Prior knowledge:
alpha+beta, Alpha-Beta Plaits, four-stranded antiparallel sheet, 3 domains
Amino acid sequence: MKVTVENKKGLNKDLKVFIDKETMNSYMDEKYEEIKGSVNLKGFRPGKVPKEILKRQFGKAVFGEVLDKVLKETSTKALEENKIKPAGQPKLDLKTYGEDKDLEYVLSVTELPKVEIKSLENIKFDEYTVKIDDSETDKRIKEIAKNQPNFKEVSADTKAKKGDLVSLDYKATVDGKDFKGSEGKNTQLTLGKDLFLKGFDDQLIGVKKDDEKIVEATLPENFPEKELVNKKAKFNCKILSVKQSEEVKINDDFAKNLGAKDLKDLKTLISKQINDEYKNSLDQLSKNQILKEIEKIKVDEVPENLVEEEVKVLSQGMSEEEAKKNKKNFEEKAKTRIKTGLILNEFGEKNQIKVSEQEIQAEVQKQLRMMPGQEKMVMDFYQKNPSALASLRGTVYEEKILNLIKEKGKANKKEISKEEAEKILKEANKHDHDHDHNHGEEKKETKKKSSTTSAKEKKPATKKAKSKPAVKKIKKVSKK
Length: 480
């Protein structure tokens, strides 16, 4: 195989590939030997059909398969030997081909530009840790304690009041007759919550342990026995116990009930929990800073074909007039996104970053935990949409790259208070909101899916290259 590279200036290159007819004939002979054993022709034993007969019978089909195989192998080899990473699908133009002929073709390719990544190891960004005051931790623990039920049985002569927990057995009738579901054993009601039947709780205020009380209540619209809906039922209640709520004591026992070793350990865990509530959003701020710094790195030329593809993505769903109006703005945005994607990808390849199936499944499980009750829907979505799973792989790949850049970069470490963290995040969200308001026509872009390109995974002449530096928005920390 002989390869000549033309148009060496710029990213567009033509590779002239020449394979002499002797080599092509050897490929053909190999194929005939391969099919000889499986061909059954009348008058010939299996494996004994002469090549000339095979050529007459299957020549065109064999040549087609051989040509396809040779083009794939030699185009891939030509690109690898000349260290060319294609940005998109190369175009192939056959010049000379045929049985017992030389093969000559031109491979027109747009090359991915060379990018500089050394400066990433000195990239500067802010890294925040939130100092949680003891008073903040104590406040959170008191909130937890307040929501922990702690009912204690009271003496037999103590009357039930609103907020007490009353346990009772009951037997109900309508017009003096029993009905399905008319009996209940050890039913527990917190008086005042009115969770059983409307007005039922109020009639139990003042009862004591071992009292019997007849309570009247109207059966609701959703009562299973339709003929009894809106009818008044009499409930003969036997009071089993009356319990009053006591303030939970915040001590080692309380901490152990929550899974901590002791109160000191619980305070450490709660402090970490509060810190973690801010950590993800603050870490994302750091990564956004890194992405902004990457945007400043110079790339001499961005492949036009990738820009065109990205502009199509950005203008998806727009009218022709709207797309035309925003074309220049989208081209600039596309160049920035592609450039950032190329730099991230180069860094990923140089550092041999891979995404394992276990990491993909872990990310899926993470999403399942975030959508309780909709697990099956999420799983079905990924099983039926391979492109969504590929996009998820791209997200994990990019996240691993940014984490490694953070490790290698120069962090400006800042310890801030909870109030300072909230202020920083509020300002970041306001900036994002203002940016969206000023570029309303671009809002649809945030819904588009794409992934950082891994040029290494591309097979020349078969797959298109994509790129994406996805910048995620900061989410506000929810206060519990």
